[in-house]
Batch of 4 targets.
Target 1
Amino acid sequence: MKDYLPKCGELTKKFGEVYPAGHTNARVKFNATEASIFAERAEGSHVWDMDGNEYIEYVNAYGPLLLGHRHPRWIDALKDHLDHNTTVYGSGIIYGENDIHLGQKLVKHIPCAEAVKLCTTGTEAVQTAIRIARAYSGKDKILRFGSFYHGWVDNIYINKIDDEYNEEDGPLYKVLPKDNPYYPDGVSPWVRNESFVIPYNNFEMLEKTIEKYNDKIGMCLVEPMASDVFCMHPLPGYLERMRELCTKYNIVLCFDEVITGFRLGLGGVQEYLGVIPDICTLGKSLGGGLPVAAVVGKKEFMNIFQEKNVVSGGTFNGFSLGITASLAAISLYEELADTLYSTLEAVTDRLIGGMHEICKKYNVAFTTTECTKGGIFYAFFGIDNGRIKRLTDVSMVSGADYEFYDRFWQFMQEEGILIMFGARWFIGGGHTMEDIEKTLTVFEMSLQKTLEYYEEKKK
Ligand SMILES: Cc1ncc(COP(=O)(O)O)c(C=O)c1O
């Protein structure tokens, strides 16, 4: 491997002394190389590290950078704000006029939105949504779906399905062995009783669970196009059936659009698929690169804060710099809508198409899955199911060769393409066709090197 990260390597050691777990962690490999990347600057889709290496990046900070890094108009809005305003006033005590403009924009664009509650992270938005649902319905249990991610807090973190559930307990998730990466230490054992976790896209299981436990289930929480689960799409009629059952049994339907919000157009997946939840969570792209998140929903549900003793605090809820950032981001999504979304789609299409051509040329088993229009896709080596535009069954992507991907990931980084673990790629508004062509050149080169590496290993 190339030694191209001497300074980053030194910084990695110093960093490890003060941050033993980094800034965010799960039991997966976050970095391609032993040295972490320490960035000096960023622009659009490009990042420069402290060793002077330039990268085209597909990490996208896990999704918020729909406009790319440092969109000049977004930066101007922040600068203008800081010229005469402060960053935070005192949540609930002092407001700004922009708070109203932001709320009005959300109500205008998000189909279920008649009212808004702001917070700072997606995890918090989900917790707020849970409170709304429990208070509104008077029922405690959450119905969730296997492998779906809604943040890192205890009550929603563990998302594996119990394939041995018994009829009495219902489909609770399995008590995983302690060494399983999905059951981290420190998680309360009591949260096991808070959720029913069932397989997605299984009509029978959905119907049976709701029919049987509707007196306990207060909320159905779902990512309507599961960007976190290999971009799994709902089967035709699945979300509609969910909507129907939730209405029938007084269960609050919450779409988690923390990732998909603004990525599939201004109205998110709910607008795209035409199924309207009671409430939904937003985050990531909502702030355009600063931490702004929200629950939005119909007034009937959102009014619960006044009608009952529901509390949702947060020192930084609705902080003024975040409001400006969010307002500027949404104004840009509106203004650029004609080009932003079509470019995102075209660029993603060319990249995925090009990857398949290259893999075909080298006879490499390769599969991709994608979220329609959203600039999110997964690339798997070792499975030969082609380009899946609408994944509805995760077994189609089981058996991927992640070891091969890890090696390939290192070669890509060495040649200036930064991707992330777990086969997921994010495209942002900063990506150009030129970036994509360069990426495809490096993709081919890295694939060749990875194949050579394994050939060599066999000898
Ligand atoms: C669908 C979904 N919901 C919630 C969250 C949590 O958001 P945050 O990381 O801002 O807390 C995430 C984060 O990736 C997510 O993908």
Target 2
Amino acid sequence: MNRTVKGICKKAAGIALASLVAAGAFAQEIAGTPTGKGTPKYVFVFIGDGMSYPQIQSSAYFIGKDAAGIVDEVKNSSNPSDSPVGGLLSFMKFPVAGSAQTYDATSFAPDSASTATSIFTGKKTHSSSINVDISKKIKYRTIAEQLRDQKKWKIGVLSTVNLNHATPAATYAHQASRKSNYPIGLELVASNFDYFAGGALMEPEDKKGDKESIYSLAQKAGYKVCFTQKEASSLKNGDKAIVVSETLADADAMNYENDRADGEWSLRDYVKKGIEVLDNKNGFFMMVEGGKIDWACHANDARSTIADTLALSEAVKEAVDFYNKHPKETLILVTADHETGGLTIGFAGTDYNLFFNTLKAQKISYAKFDSDYVASYKKNKTSFDDVMKDVTELFGLKVPGSAGKDKNGGLVLTEYEYGRIRDAYNKTMSGTKTSGQMEYELYGTYEPLTVTITHVLNNKSGIGFTSYSHTGLPVPVFALGAGQYEFEGYYDNTDIYKKLAALTSVKQD
Ligand SMILES: [Zn+2]
């Protein structure tokens, strides 16, 4: 952590620097001036699933100064430009930022399977297909496979979601459908990649549970399969390993960052271990996915999206550390596959005002609230008044008429907002399926109570979502290191592969 402080912002020495660093207000320092010279033999590709400009910028504002604080500070400052509103994510300090379009062969609002195919193979395909052409017959080889075979690089694949989920699968699998979990698992083992880490495999024994476990097949193929942090800690340079998070959450993914317990490994810890395992003289390629940025956006849970975006930003710092030691041989990209949720910054109900501090009142992800609270409300027929006590505790929202209207937007519900939550509570308690256009727009396919709580909290913060699915927004491509300037401009996601292949001189095969 001290490295972060060194040499930055001398005039801030008088203020509580340590606490600002702890809050992530400063980005990892990049040593020297990145020239972009050199040839990469260590390549990191970070993918925030569903992480376009709105997710990144709202995370920066979230760790920046609160709106009321800014107004006071600017009023009292002789030079308001000294008072930046936003905080900085680690990759916002990268010298290059380009933009990539994300459409696929069949959709302007594509999915992770087709977009990751484009990023890793330079080809467009159908939504939900992984590394096959639109006839679903021709298989495309990925940059990771090419680097493994042509350059003898080691390969690492990390994700906060399942290791056979679409984005990680797109580094090693070739399947007409992303839902072929077991066949994708078989391809994971066959890839002979060196380090996998993150959430558990989906259907490791196939749909009926009647096939040999992917984990046991991996062990037979020479992988160390670790299910505890203790086992993961003992991995050494040169090991071939599959590391599954000791603590699994919804759908056997890693926990959301805002549910993560003290001492539980974060994505950054898995990246750090991965660098230790993969480092070798030929080179390595590491793909790191923040997969739950997308999941939280599907559920319209802004607070959890922001927490996971910040966790990805933290993980990038490990790569920056590595870059600092090998600046002419390291390339780091931070990008996304597509946007999710149609998140935007600005909401009709708060006019020009934004209150990111309001979101800080949320202490739990939508998924954990569903599993740990809503399930028992239904079972015990908990009264609305009692539910509201938990809502106040976990999301900060207070019943109308409560004392203490907060300075920043306020967490006291209006009668209208309270009514929205009560209607959703009634819908949840009824146990009936959502149906019809109105209910879909209100709740999507989510638990009506939970999604309405996050909607109200988002809206009180001045932000909102337009969708429970993906959108057609372009995504940023941040670049640091050898070859960084290739990533300037506005291009197609297939160009990411083409640029990487050219920089690492792999041939398309
Ligand atoms: Zn998605």
Target 3
Amino acid sequence: MTAGPAPHAHRHLAPTLRPALAPLPADPDVVVVGAGSAGIAAARRLLARGLRVAVLEARDRVGGRTLTTALRGHPVDLGAHWLHAGPINPLVQLGLARGEPLRRAAQESHLWVGRRRGRPAEEAAFARAWSVADRAMSDGARLGGPDRPAATALPPGLGPWGRRVALVHGLVSGRPLGEVSLHDFPSMEYGDNHFVAGGYGAYLARLAAGLPVALAAPVRAIDWSGPGVTLEAGAHGRLRARAAIVTAPVMVLRDAVAFSPPLPDPVRGAIDGFSAGIYEHVVLHWPSAPFRGRDRLASLTEGRLQPPGLLTRVDGTPFHYFELDAPLAARLDAARAGADGARRLVRASLAEHVGRGLLGDLAVPAVTEWRHDPWSRGSWAVVPPGHAGARDLLKASVGDRIWFAGEALSRLQWGTAGGAYEEGERAADAVAQALG
Ligand SMILES: Cc1cc2nc3c(=O)[nH]c(=O)nc-3n(C[C@H](O)[C@H](O)[C@H](O)COP(=O)(O)OP(=O)(O)OC[C@H]3O[C@@H](n4cnc5c(N)ncnc54)[C@H](O)[C@@H]3O)c2cc1C
């Protein structure tokens, strides 16, 4: 643990919007730890229920793992960008009600096989591999039995298309499917996606406007030995309240916050058992990319280097996201290659598929490193095989004084800002009920 506010990975990239925040009340009923999606949701819900709230945020900005910054004059998301699962995502429903500039994500995508565009028969084979693999994993999870790696449910014989499906599932899961619980699989819900013009981070920042948030106030210790809770927040000193909602990522809770008395063993076990999901954006500015159409995913298959994920022409601009999965990020880290290593990897991968000639105007203005940021330590929490009960276990209060919330607790929308928001509201309702 460090003494002052620790630096965080993207601090040189300022948010496009810093909302005006309210001062903390003198005697809060509830302290919310963290002003990401879950913390913002919890604070809004608690205030709506008439409770006094203080939010303590470690970074010098709100939004957590959502952050919209300006690159070459365009708002670009460095964290969450997709509003997944429209019908069940509270941020879609709220956005529609508020008149936020939402739009549906395109269904069309690009398939590239080696150095050429995919043929209709190849597209059909790829689509078939998706549905066979998804059905096998959903069935494997539904049938119960001992938990096992999601990869073991994949039918053999799907060939290269099956390997591509497994690679993409590993990317969006945050870890290769061999390290992901099969029983957690049905919670992956990615249908009916949306985007918000101006960025997801800016949308969350608008939702934080007027909330009582102290920035640069990292909570180091939570004492729940008495009737309420006492929190130590660095230079902000000590805050007492009747209850706390803790939304710091579980990867951060492993050792950055001391609980006294220690958390009950099952709760501690649930927190420590998650693994860190890795998903990083390498942001490309590439006007002459051969991909047409706005917001389309591109699968570049065959060849030595296959990008696990590529979102092209983001918001109809020359920006694209080249995504790094856990194995690629680990390779860069092992070689201590940093952002320049990521740039070299991108160039080599794209050159293999489109030729060097098209890379003349390719620039890489940002490479994210959420995995090295002390306030996230990863992109989202992953349930390894055998740990499938952890999300639900963390929903119960600790001693009717501490509630956890955040993306890690969401069963149907884990790893998403929408899931985090829903969990923040759930925890706020539980606290409000407990406090009467
Ligand atoms: C590159 C990337 C791409 C992603 N893409 C998508 C996407 O397209 N769609 C999607 O829905 N989701 C996506 N996600 C995941 C999404 O960003 C997260 O699931 C979601 O934002 C998590 O919200 P949260 O409130 O649970 O946690 P956070 O947003 O991490 O909020 C927790 C807050 O707590 C603060 N904090 C931590 N420790 C302390 C402490 N000790 N004291 C005080 N404050 C503390 C943190 O600074 C942070 O502000 C992506 C994530 C990454 C990294």
Target 4
Amino acid sequence: MSKKIKWGILSTANIGVKKVIPAMQKGIYSEVVAIASRNHENAKRVAGELNIPTAYGSYKDLLADESIDAIYNPLPNHLHVPLTIECMEAGKHVLCEKPIALNTEELQRLIAVREQHKVKVGEAFMVHTHPQWITAKQLINQGEIGDLKSIHGFFSYFNNDAKNIRNIAEYGGGALFDIGCYPIHTSRFIFGEEPTGVISLIDYDPDLKVDRLTSAILKFPSGQASFTAATQLQRYQTMQFFGTKKSMEIEVPFNAPDDQPCRILLNDGDIMKPYTAVTTIETCDQYTVQGDAFSLAILEDNEVPVPLEDSMGNTAVIEAIFKSARTGQWERPTF
Ligand SMILES: NC(=O)c1ccc[n+]([C@@H]2O[C@H](COP(=O)([O-])OP(=O)(O)OC[C@H]3O[C@@H](n4cnc5c(N)ncnc54)[C@H](OP(=O)(O)O)[C@@H]3O)[C@@H](O)[C@H]2O)c1
């Protein structure tokens, strides 16, 4: 049997319990050995349900467990940086949920601590390692759609529950941090460039004080990207790529199904058809792929899929989008 990285899970967060832990347990290089919760009973219950050997009643106890190599951090957004720093100081590698930080200053701190403790840290953009995104990038780089000039993205769902972490401003809530980060990450990934300017429009919920409808245009050296992220609209997601010869759409770009193949749709100009050709991607669980890619980077001492330097680019764009909405002007992402 191949060597596996021993993972500890920080909290009983929904995304961990429902998706990431079961997916990592299916991995070749990942083994989930412990979970911690602020409430010991919750930790024990989830450990029982998911067959995790050890349950801790505090995050500190998890970090003190010397048998653990790496931590998965799916805490609310405002706790990503402080707890990721505590993990690094305990000598653990960290895969931290998006958005890993709320501003570029926090990212500088993460980079400094990572350098000091010589551990691996990455942002959990599971899309980055999904074969449908790797294939889309390959097709575009090979010139399948001609010269890529324009990207359009849309990501929405409806959730106005004031108790949800996404709707608590001090927790780093709002549409841009929660889902706007995905079209930004994937536009930067596909162009392979950083935007030089952004302009945006934001509608804040008057009671919750978080952004609920955010649109932005990103100016890249090779073209333009625009997207809308919304937390109080019907559920929808798409990413579309427009080239000089064809257009391309990733059908389910972010919440890719784990029980059926994904599709990349191509259209060579027949506007009466949704697509004129399809590239089908073999069924996979993107969270298994993500966990194994991170574990393998540790085992082989390679770069993790989304290192902090990449996160810095994304966070700078988010910062510039918030600023542009305030100033009403183009802003340059800086870091
Ligand atoms: N990559 C993806 O596909 C994806 C999908 C959804 C969410 N996410 C990210 O994952 C993170 C968690 O999202 P989620 O929806 O799973 O959150 P959630 O269910 O609300 O879980 C957050 C967990 O954090 C712990 N926690 C510690 N301090 C807390 C506090 N002050 N308030 C609330 N919870 C606290 C709690 O666990 P204990 O009580 O056990 O300590 C709680 O269960 C977010 O950063 C989100 O952006 C990523």
